[in-house]
Amino acid sequence: MKKYLSFFRLRFAMGLQYRTAALAGIITQFAWGFMEIMIFHAFYRADAASFPMHFSATASYIWLQQAFLDNCGYQCGFCTPGIIMTAKAFLEEHENPTEEEVREALAGNYCRCGTHYTAVESVMAYVQKRKEERQ
């Protein structure tokens, strides 16, 4: 009987350890989130006119990211932020790119898991969606 009690006692103690670690992680996320909001608020209050992104620019990033999600243009996430930023900058200069132009624009990004093809497909899907919205 003592073996079983010690087992459950140990299990209870370990459970509390994991719960405490999870709670500490949640508190850390809230603290960093609060700091980020305060920094955002301070910069915006200092000079709202020079704020880097307006709503339309933010929305276009969201739709580009959604195209990546819809077309599985990610795998491990190592290269995804760089590819999205490169694609966004490229699409601001080229309204209607071909697939070959997109491949050339994304050639400088290193992808260690091989999602180059789906990333190009994702960008082309975003371009196609943008064309349909304009018509």
Give the helix/strand layout.
Layout: H1 2-46, H2 55-70, H3 80-93, H4 99-105, H5 116-134
Helix pairs in contact: 2-5
Give a verbal description of the structure.
The protein is mainly alpha-helical and 135 residues long. The N and C termini lie far apart (76 Å). It is built from 5 helices and no strands.
Short description:
By secondary structure, the protein is an all-alpha fold. The chain has five helices and no strands.
The CATH fourth-level homologous superfamily of the largest domain: [2Fe-2S]-binding domain
Instruction: Give the % helix.
Output: over 70%
Q: Mind telling me which CATH architecture of the largest domain this is?
A: Orthogonal Bundle
Structural class by helix and strand composition: mainly alpha
Give the CATH topology of the largest domain: DNA polymerase, domain 1
What distance lies between the first and last C-alpha atoms, to the nearest angstrom? Answer: 76 Å
> Biggest sheet, open or closed, and with what strands and sense?
none
Integer tally of domains: 2
Give the number of DSSP strands: 0
Mean pLDDT metric: 81
CATH domain class of the largest domain:
Mainly Alpha
User: How many whole angstroms does the radius of gyration measure?
Assistant: 23 Å
